[in-house]
Amino acid sequence: IISPASVVNVWSLSPTVKTLKLYVNHYKNMSFKAGQWLDLMIPKISRIGGYSMVSSPVSFEKDGILQLAVKFSDHAPTYWVHTQCAVGNAVSISFGGEVFYDPKPEDSSQDLLLIGGGIGINPLFSIMNRVADFNLAKQSTENSSGYQPGNTLLLYSSSIASELLFKQCLEGGCVACDHCIDHCRGS
């Protein structure tokens, strides 16, 4: 499924990474799993950009907002994100990817070890947001019939300290919802 979307926010997350918030028009007809990527189609650019999402599927189901973190390169869609992308721009998206985190309610608890570097944090951050969703659901209900995640450990590095994405969120234990990215940039 390809859906139109619009840019609702864009900001610099690091010296080389821009973050986008997209509102997906037909989000009620779409879904994704934590850790998947999306194809980003930009009008007048023939190449398609493939980017891992940082959002939780639960948050997307509620409000149709997706968050991406895109590292600079001269790849046409990525270059557009860094040099021309603005609030209100129209794009199209579709979901893909066969590697994801999607435990079922009847699954036994599993510990997670997530290992990544640099921009590779994106799908891991999506997975961590999904684990946080499970933990919040467990806290907010007396019925414990849903999936119960085990311990989650993230090993994450970058060759440059300024490129440790979501560092404040991760150090502050803020990975509890998709609004963490907004919190990290102070809005």
Automatic annotation (TrEMBL):
Listed InterPro entries: FAD-bd_FR_type (IPR017927), FNR_nucleotide-bd (IPR039261), Oxidoreductase_NAD-binding (IPR052128), Riboflavin_synthase-like_b-brl (IPR017938)
Whether Cytoplasm counts among this entry's keywords is no
Organism superkingdom: Eukaryota
Q: Which UniProt keywords apply?
A: NAD, Oxidoreductase
Q: Which GO terms describe its cellular component?
A: mitochondrion
Entry's Gene Ontology molecular function annotations: oxidoreductase activity
> What PROSITE patterns is this protein classified in?
FAD_FR
Keyword NAD: yes or no? yes
Q: Which residues form the FAD-binding FR-type domain?
A: 1-103
Recorded protein name is FAD-binding FR-type domain-containing protein
